[in-house]
Amino acid sequence: MTLLHGRARTWAGFAGAAVLLFALAPLALTDFRLGLLAKYLCTAMVAVGICLAWGRGGLLTLGQGLFFGLGGYAMAMHLKIADAGPGNLPDFMQLYGTATELPWWWRPFADPVFALAATVLLPMAVAALLGSFIFRRRVKGAYFAILSQALAAAFAIWLIGQQATTGGTNGLTDIQGFFGYDLDDPVNQRTVYFIIAAALLLLIALARQLIHSRYGELLVAVRDSEERVRFLGYDPAKVKLVAYVVAAGMAGLAGALFVPAVGIISPAMIGIVPSIEFVIGAAVGGRASLVGAVLGAIGVAWARTALSEEFPAAWTYFQGLLFIVALAFLPGGLASLGGVLQRRRARQRKAAVVAVGEAA
């Protein structure tokens, strides 16, 4: 009965989310606000991967901007080639570069199938390579967090230095089409939103399946006692590698869908600051809760848009303070607030019973 009740709650939650995203939001929001929500949902997709890697596996991934950027640039490169037309160079190459044909590493992205596959598989391949090196040398904790952040920073710096082939600081901008559809058309913009909403629900379902599987239990065991898991015959490096690679694939898909939703991808969107913002959203909402991480990511992204317009200089400090407060006073995020209050009430009732017994 408990299992059936849990499944019923899960299906009810997905149904409610689907109604909210596919029916209520398009009816209640203007095209502009719906476009902003699409952007926030991309951030939430990254948070799903962070929930798996950090919330369940204890891997503080401060460099998800690297994988978000790889997916975003893979998608943007294909769309820029398509916008330019057969035999033509993307506009920024004509402006900044001296080449008369596409660079060799751009050419495969002219194929839509290759580009779509690369948005997910390229970040996963990079994560597999980096993770194999990092985890087999038992790098963890703060060292892992700093190293992952440094990789995101290095990627952003490299992009800035390749102005003729990556657009440099400006990035890849003014993206007009999405696989033959004009992104200036509000109908097509809504279609992109629906694709992003569907992708988010699918990623949540995938992450939930992993979390509640035997692998999810093993991941928690590695987080809590890595040496004991090794003693039982499992390789903790492989267990952590799977979570890291899956989270990278989710971030890559989020970056790919972010491009048609916003029409741009640049180094400023994938460096250290965006990577930290991804983690802050998951931490504030609740890194161990899929729903909490998703809602936290959406809430923090919305707050950044709303408050940074009013307090552009102070928003970054407020964001950092929010992260510190969440980790120091509510490590489980807002998703754990109900449990914290419930335990506090239980302690108060117990103290009251004890006081009554002593008085008697």
Task: Report on this structure.
The chain is mostly helical. 76% of the residues lie in helices and 1% in strands. It has 15 helices and two strands. A two-stranded antiparallel sheet has the order 1-2. A hairpin with a 2-residue loop joins strand 1 and strand 2. Helix 1 runs antiparallel to helix 8. It is globular and about 90 Å long. The chain starts with a helix and ends with a helix. The mean pLDDT is 88.
What's the SSE blueprint?
Blueprint: H1 2-28, H2 31-56, H3 64-84, H4 91-96, H5 112-136, H6 142-161, H7 163-166, E1 177-178, E2 181-182, H8 186-211, H9 214-224, H10 226-231, H11 236-262, H12 272-285, H13 290-310, H14 315-329, H15 337-359
Antiparallel strand pairs: 1-2
Radius of gyration, whole Å: 22 Å
> Which spans have pLDDT < 50 for at least 5 consecutive residues?
none
Number of strands: 2
For the sheet with most strands, the description reads: 2 strands, antiparallel
Helix content: over 70%
Widest beta sheet: strand line-up: 1-2
Instruction: Average the pLDDT over all residues and give the rounded result.
Output: 88
Strand content: under 5%
How many H/I helices? 15
Structural class of the secondary structure composition?
mainly alpha
N to C succession of SSEs = HHHHHHHEEHHHHHHHH
- What is the terminal-to-terminal distance? 43 Å
Bulk shape: globular
